[in-house]
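ok so heres the complex, two chains, lmk if somethin looks off
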Amino acid sequence: MSTSETHAQVSYLEHQGKYKGILGWLTSTDHKRIALLYMYSMLVFFSVSAILGLLMTIEKAAPGQDIMTAQQYNGFFTIHGVIMIFIIVIPGLAAVFGNFALPIMIGARDVAFPKLNLFSWYLYIIGAILGVLSQFAGDGPPDTGWTFYVPYSAESSTNVIFALTAAFVLGFSSILTGLNFIVTIHRMRAPGMTFFKMPLFPWSLYATAWIQLLATPIIGITLLMVIAERVLHIGFFDPALGGDPVLFQHLFWIYSHPAVYIMILPAMGVVTEIFPTFSQKPVFGYGAIAISSLAIAFVGYFVWGHHMFTSGISYWSRWFFSFLTFIVAIPSAIKVFNWVSTMYGGSIDMKPPLLYAISFIFLFMIGGFTGLTLGSLATNIQLHDTSFVVAHFHYIIFGGMGFAFFAGIHYWYPKIYGRMYSNRWAYIGWGFLFTGFNLLYFPQFIIGIQGMPRRYFDYLPEFQWGHFLSLIGAIILLSGFIIMVSNLIYHRRKGAIAPANPWKGVTLEWQIPSPPPVENFDEIPTITRKPYFFGKD
Amino acid sequence: MEKHHISSYTSHGIVLTVLLTLTALSVTIAELHLGAISVAVALLVASIKGTTVLTYFMHLKYESTFFKVMVAGVFAMYALIIIFTFFDYIFR
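and the predicted structre for the whole thing:
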């Protein structure tokens, strides 16, 4: 095993390439630096979008118009959705932790196409800037919602084309990252690392990459079709021109439902690394978790119709998509059982990463079960387009992907920066985040069942208690986020020096120094045993 | 090290002719107004064109069976997506 004391190469943070300073970062093809470029960019965009979310919650704290007009509210929820979905949650875990950890975990020096990797980040930045600019350029902020449903998106006088182009460019970035990861996993695994000796985070990235590669082009073409309809009046979706508006929903959700798995599969992969490490025990059901990732990716392609139960699709389609929605819950449940079984009988060390990972299971399960409520045909009609849906997808997206991201950053932070953060402040941050999150979103389930519609600027007085609790939750949540980020930023330079393996992990990234050297390994290791070997099977 | 395969000009010429012919066929079919099956026929022609490009221009012909199966799997998945979408239209 290499250690920081005996290593010959300089760390990737200190490495001096052709250029110095920020230019050195902007031109670096090192997968670890690109991972951090993604992370810092996301932090900026997340902060912008979170503030928009907070302002919407303030607006709804009391009935009637308070701090913004109805049209401004439409613009806010549209750009909040576009940023959160296309800029944060879809690329999030794969672009940050996938880029940082994947090559190291499979024993490679970098991804298969390092320059393409940097190009993906530039595309990402161009798309993200276009998305934000859509708020200011042209004829006013787009007001269609992030789903861009026609016929409204083909007719709205606001700046829809800008936002569509942003999503289109971001899609390209996602495709290229997926392609890069597939080739990296197929071609660059260390000698002896067969697919079934590969850690489970790379497995989840592999399943994700296939979705990125195969599903994203469909949304790209669909968005171009909307632009063509707006600009050239080609009748793809407008019935007056011979088109079909339901076709847009089909095409949109053929991508956008698998996109949920693009963000949740890496989240599952992250916590799958954390449970064995902090239980000091091999992961329970390695094969079942690996195959269930592929099963989720595959079945997840064929459930898109559950977003359209009330849109006028055929009876048999509704039956079929509802059935498949229940089927896709099975591999997800397999993973949950395996995570819990991994902890059972282990030497549990409740460090911040494990705390976040357990929170992930709790919140993801609430999101998952309420998803089944929505996937059931009868209850869907009652709950469709209510704030119940808003609560459900925030539990999946923020409770799932968000808390897995927090788990991941607390897990790999010592490896990324070579420093330790304060556990005490990490626990305090977690307390605020977990409490604030539930207080913000859980009331939305209840008022949703009572009939509170989503995307409504105003509402009946009986729903005020729920919105008011949500505002208090949002403030606590934001406080927790600030505490967590401050803890991480402060200890980036002031924290205690991290050893190579502070958590007693057994995957390859813990066998190299913290922070890793530029090319990760002095010598590419040869793999002889399964990935989660803690010396006792 | 990967093997390099250099295709002949004759092979390229034949593939180009096939692709142009199929494109002409696509245009002709679009003008025939075949009703419900027009999309299916257009997709079939497009799939033949795609397979030809993959096989010859992208050298899938020289790859291992594993990669051929993966590409076939992708085709099958797209086919399923299209079938499920049109399933809705047929029964609506």
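quick notes: Chain B touches chain A through 13 residues (CB under 8 Å). thats all i got rn
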